[in-house]
Design goal:
The chain is mainly beta and 116 residues long. 9% of the residues lie in helices and 47% in strands. The protein has an eight-stranded mixed β-sheet.
Length: 116
């Protein structure tokens, strides 16, 4: 049996931009992507701590060590600049393998969105 498990997580980052007039996605600082094992084009769930919104989009690579977290297109309506969000990537795994799997979770500085 295959199950969905948390593969990657960027826990509590600040939204730095929201661009309604861009094709939908989330732009994430490349350093955060590497640390959390996310890749460009990967589907992610966004959880907005400030307003409780939960939605899905896909990842676009942002400038490394810039702290960029930008919601684009319709997703820009679900956040405000300054909101704290959690970004979660999931993967399908065999049930038994999932029992010992350890996800890549990062806890960036909430002010700078950089990894200390």
């Amino acid at each position: 049996m295959l199950i969905n498990v948390v593969k990657s997580k960027i826990h509590r980052v600040k939204v730095t931009q929201a661009d309604l007039n861009y094709i939908g996605s989330i732009t994430i600082d490349e350093a955060l992507m590497l640390a959390s094992n996310l890749i460009e084009g990967e589907q992610v769930q966004i959880v907005n701590v400030n307003n409780g919104e939960r939605f899905e989009t896909y990842v676009i690579t942002g400038e490394s060590k810039s702290g960029t977290i930008c919601l684009n297109g319709p997703a820009a309506r679900r956040v405000a600049v300054g909101d704290i969000i959690i970004i979660i990537g999931y993967g399908m795994m065999d049930f038994e393998a999932a029992k010992s799997f350890k996800p890549s979770i990062v806890f960036p500085n909430e002010e700078t969105n950089l990894i200390d």
